[in-house]
Amino acid sequence: MSNLVIIESPTKAPTIKSYLGSSYKVVASNGHVRDLPKSSMGVNIENNFEPHYINIRGKGGLIKNLKKEVKDADKVFLATDPDREGEAISWHLAAALEIPEEKALRITFNEITKTAVKGAIKSPRRIDMSLVNAQQTRRILDRIVGYKLSPYLWKTVKSGLSAGRVQSVATRIIVEREEEIRAFIPSEYWTIDAILVCDEGREIRARFYGDEKQRLKLGSREEADKIIRAVDKKTFSVKSIRRGTKRRAPAPPFTTSTMQQEASRKLGFQSARTMRVAQELYEGINLRAENGGVQGLITYMRTDSQRVSAEAQAAALGYIADKFGLEYCPTSPRIYKSKNNAQDAHEAIRPVKTALEPAKVRSYLTSDQFKLYKLIWERFVASQMQSAELSTVTADFGCEGYIFRASGYSVVFPGFMALYTESEDETRPKAEDSEGDAEGGERDLIIPDMKVGQRLELKKIAGEQHFTEPPQRFTEASLIRFLEEQGIGRPSTYTPIITTILARKYVRREGKALMPTPLGEITTKLMKENFPDIVNYKFTANIETELDEIESGKTDMLEVLSRFWEDFSRSLEVAEKNIGNQSITLPVEETDMICEKCGARMVIKSGKFGEFAACPNYPACKNTKPLENKNSAKGQGAKKNLPDKEPVLADFKCEKCGGDMVLRYGKYGSFFACVNYPRCKFTKQKAKEIDAACPKCGSKIVIKRGRNRSVFYSCESYPECDFSSWDMPTGEKCPKCSGMLFRSKAKGVLFCRTENCGYERPLELSSNEK
After folding, report:
1. Is residue 760 within 8 Å of 752, Cβ to Cβ?
2. 236 with 266, same domain?
3. Is the pLDDT of residue 643 over 60?
4. Domain boundary, last residue among 535, 556, 579
5. Res 505: pLDDT
6. Which of 188, 311, 481, 550 lies most in the core, judged by the most C-beta atoms within 10 Å?
7. pLDDT at 632
8. CATH code, 319
9. Domain check: are 297 and 378 in the same one?
10. Is residue 424 assigned to a domain?
11. CA-CA distances (angstroms) from residue 358 to 25, 285, 354, 370?
12. Domain span at residue 105?
């Protein structure tokens, strides 16, 4: 009997094949094989929102080969990823490959190990249409919103813009935070710190708390000085000392969002980088034969579940007892409850084998892989450890009716803190004065045993001025947390959301902070005025809930789509009347670069391959330059093709899945990649540019190769502009007719191609060309 296993990624094929043996053939679909068409909406709204799926361009050969494999197999195991998207890919494969229902067997595994894969083969099931319909509903909703809204943005703001169901909400969140910051008015407040000395000579730092009745805030120097004068050179006395103990529990194992947040805070990883590395750890690392060969190191990395299998818990507790001692093991395994809207089909993100300590596999991992694996491993093991025990102390000291307070804590038993502690979100709002909370006070504060009424001498006292601070801008980590808290998006969508709003220039990055661009602010204003539901937090979250209900079989797909369309179509009618022929002019962003041809200050323009500096006097002056890095010296700094540059949106779609393509910067230069990476790994090489503008339309000229690998030059706007040349355009003007001169190395001349001109001159070759 022959068995065929179809997976998404070819990277996993050798590992899975080695687990299953010679009676199984493992092949890859490279993600989706069918999708909605790029050239039309592809959804028949009048006919119950019927989607029109077509085979993805470029996949014809793959589909033909897979059909042959299916025909020769007795059983076909569809082993795509264990989530909605994976279920939909299996469904599309079954349709495109015409797999008979009795042969199509769906299997899933949460980790790529021999036990998990062989266990899945033993318990196949049919394709779950509830999961498929949840994915289809999301895809259809997103397609309707994109196709129906984008024309309004083209007409009103700028051609080529795109509105998205979730990306528009994410942009609004960032825009509104910026508006809060602009509207923020700082208020003054003061703190007073006193250094007190007890009989043993020990110094204690105490902060002004209030009077004997209540806590007081000091809003001016006058108020602070009044208190300082009242207690200066006076004796303080102990009013109360409260000692206690607290237990601090470990954080739960990672979900997708908490992994992205912690990797951002601790490792400085952007979310796309985190997901790329996590995918590599999941798909398998070659640990060589002595360590078991190729194997996955972590469980599936797109999850909002905090559940952990009993086997994994037992392995972790055994490791903890062996390495730390029994006192570090809780009396019973820790059970973490997932959120109500979590898709709990698989586990939290954890190491596949606790025994594979980070140090043991370090030599087989890249630097990024090691850092992320260590983070995941430590978080998981710590999540199964005993709580930390803290000794807390709060002491109040009185003088002239005023209270000064010292508070803090010390670690009595470290528990999980011996291995790992969760980092704090730097964007969380901070209180004006954190004193009064023992655990939030000074660490390792020691206050000796003292009796109420015992006197202390004042050694030093001083006031300090402060101002309240505006809300912090969102970082990737805090935006993901906020989206999750609001119920917007799901584990598989957080990274594409951020990538898209950056690539579409609705948002830019300033260090770690995310800031709206003028385009993002104008677009958000337009959307709020005309399509308030689309950018409404609760409305978007409710749709996510409805998708979850479709997945669980509680709600019908058609019911959700019909309800959405009924409201959305009314908004479209109203917007058509309100917007009319309204046009919004975007502010021009200037650089510090001066056009050497006409002396104008150059401005930022966007082309097919990203941003560039252009003369504002076009078409009279067609000078363009590569854009320098705006964040460093805004004009004369490093080039923008640095590896940490933001993705730039391309004006073509992914040939495999239909997603947006963005310009990325890698070790070997720039290239285009799908925003849905790592699920879709399609890439396309970026053509090199030359320092000359197209003589027909003024766009950039790129270097291309023909079928015989011969170099030629073409306009980047092809096919809209059909300029091409075997001879290199120089950008130099012809002294006879002002046309462009071209360089012919074969003839050894610079010549003009303008009809009836005939100008040419000998070519001066460099020493390297002679």
Report:
1. yes
2. no
3. no
4. 579
5. 87
6. 550
7. 38
8. 1.10.290.10
9. yes
10. no
11. 33, 13, 9, 7
12. 3-127
The CATH number covering residue 140 comes to: 1.10.460.10
Number of domains in the chain: 6
Catalytic residues, by residue number, are: 300
Smallest CA-to-CA distance from 673 within 659, 693, 687 is with 659
| Intra-chain end-to-end CA distance of the chain, in Å | 67
pLDDT at residue 72 in the model? 92
**Domain shared by 114 and 172, yes or no:** no
CA distance 435 to 441: 6
Question: Cα–Cα distance between 11 and 27 in angstroms, integer?
Answer: 10
pLDDT at 658: 65
pTM assigned to the model: 0.76
Q: What is the Cα–Cα distance from 456 to 419, expressed in whole angstroms?
A: 40
Q: How many CB atoms lie within 10 A of CB 191?
A: 17
| Cβ-based neighbours of 305, under 8 Å, separated by 6 or more | 255, 338, 342, 343, 344, 345, 346, 347, 348
For 15-30, letters b (16+ CB in 10 Å) and e give bbbebbeeebbbbbbb
Q: Distance (Å, rounded) from C-alpha 662 to C-alpha 668?
A: 16
Q: Identify the domain boundary among 547, 579, 611.
A: 579
Do 676 and 549 belong together in one domain?
A: no
For residue 224, name the pLDDT band (cuts at 50, 70, 90). very high
Rounding to the nearest 10 degrees, give the CA dihedral for residues 134, 140, 141, 142. Answer: 110
* Residue 717 or 266, more confident: 266
Average per-residue pLDDT in the chain?
87
DSSP state of 543: H
218 assigned to some structural domain: yes
Beta bridge partners of 396: 240, 405
Q: Which residues pair with 104 in a beta bridge?
A: 76
* Residue 492, helix vs strand vs coil: coil
How does pLDDT run across 567-624, given as a tens digit for each residue? 999 999 888 888 766 667 666 777 888 888 888 888 887 665 567 888 988 888 888 8
3-class SS string, 382-411: HHCCCCEEEEEEEEEEEECCEEEEEEEEEE
CATH of the domain at 211: 2.70.20.10
26 located within any domain:
yes
* Average confidence (pLDDT) over 100-104: 93
Please say if the pLDDT value at position 369 is more than 60: yes
Band of residue 64 on the pLDDT scale cut at 50, 70, 90 = very high
User: At residue 324, what is the residue type?
Assistant: F
Look at the chain and count its residues: 770
Are the CB atoms for 377 and 183 separated by under 8 Å? no
Rounded to an integer, the average pLDDT of 30-51 is: 92
Q: Are residues 648 and 744 in the same domain?
A: no
Q: Is 107 exposed, middle or buried (CB count within 10 Å of its CB: 0-12, 13-18, 19+)?
A: buried
628: pLDDT strictly greater than 60 = no
Please tell me whether residues 301 and 401 are part of one structural domain: no
| 331-358 pLDDT tens trace | 989 999 877 655 556 799 999 999 999 9
Mark whether 96 and 118 lie in a shared domain.
yes
Q: Which residues contact 336 (CB under 8 A, 6 or more apart)?
A: 252, 253, 306, 307, 308, 348, 383
| pLDDT one-digit tens code per residue, 158-214 | 766 777 889 999 999 999 999 999 999 999 999 999 999 988 788 999 999 999 999
Residues 569 and 450 in one domain: no
| Nearest partner of 551 among 135, 211, 205, 20, judged by Cα | 135
Does residue 374 lie in a domain region? yes
